[in-house]
Amino acid sequence: DLAAESGSSKLTGKLETSSGLSTGAKMNATFVSLTRNSDLWDIADSIRNVEDRFNRNYHYDWVFLNDQPFDETFKKVTTAMVSGTARYGLIGKEHWSFPDFIDQDKAKAVREDMAERKIIYGDSISYRHMCRFESGFFFRQPLMNEYEWYWRVEPSIKLFCDIGFDPFVFMAENKKKYSFVISLFEYAETIPTIWDSTKKFMKLHPEHIPEGNAVDWLSDDGGESYNHCHFWSNFEIGNLNWLRSKAYLEFFEVLDQDGGFFYERWGDAPVHSIAAGLLLKKEEIHFFDDIGYWHVPFTHCPTSEQKRLENKCHCNPKDNFDWKGYSCTTKWFEKNELKYPEGWEDQKD
Ligand code: GDP
Ligand code: MN
């Protein structure tokens, strides 16, 4: 049955994870949301969804991170809503500012140029700090250092299906390090040189690049160029120890030094995705088909009707983005030789 496939049958009793860090049915895991005080009611909406569909039965902690102190209203409302412990972290200046090697005039000229070209968030300084923070620093905040697993939740997302299994347990038992529900092509204008920096890293650190990685999903010409496929990182369930590994940190360092977070507008989605595709074995990346999800403007709705009914999904299957032309999930199935769910062809554009 589907529940067993998802790992819920193994939830009862003691559990030894592959990492050996956690025992007992509950994992050393937390939700994590980076938000402003002004995001309160939008994150409240997301919390309601996550609690109703999953966490009310599991009571995992929730870490809120902000570059400004959280106000009392934010803390009061979110604490009341989270069934686990809600915790609040203030991000240090060193993780949310321009590194001293960045040429301010050059960065400013880029923002002005991108504003004229109407590139989304192209004129924003704070968005760039946010992307750099999510790429290189969220997983090493003092509060996050206490956990092994994270589930990222953004404001105003929706969960469409009951999650009757523990995705953290599933990840541990199946040796997964990173997961996604939606993948797509990145705007080329935001990352023109990210692959140059990536190639520099590959030359510098071949020791971090295992055989059997997912580079074929990122590149259509054996690593020469980037095809712009990325996992949509507003949803992520992943392993924090992987992000804290030498391999990931050295990858981030090469990218950061090249300045593309400020001289272009690199998103954390392509950064995490390229890292996962290069540094992990492809079996360590998981597509969570069971988790029906929406973040404006895309939906993941399980293709299988049986799955939708069993998990009380309320998404319209017609909205499922997986097999549409702008999705990279078809390519993911292709490259990993995964079994396509029945009816997938009816959902193409
Ligand atoms: P989009 O999904 O790419 O359109 O970007 P969002 O506006 O959703 O931002 C991504 C995440 O970063 C969300 O969780 C936001 O709440 C958060 N975020 C964005 N900008 C800031 C900021 O300046 N400060 C803080 N604390 N959080 C931010
Ligand atoms: Mn968002």
From TrEMBL:
The keyword RNA-binding does not apply. One of its GO terms (biological process) is protein N-linked glycosylation. The keyword Transferase applies. One of its GO terms (cellular component) is membrane. Keywords: Glycosyltransferase, Membrane, Transferase, Transmembrane, Transmembrane helix. Residues 6-18 have a biased composition (Polar residues). One of its GO terms (molecular function) is alpha-1,2-mannosyltransferase activity. Belongs to the glycosyltransferase 15 family. This is Uncharacterized protein.
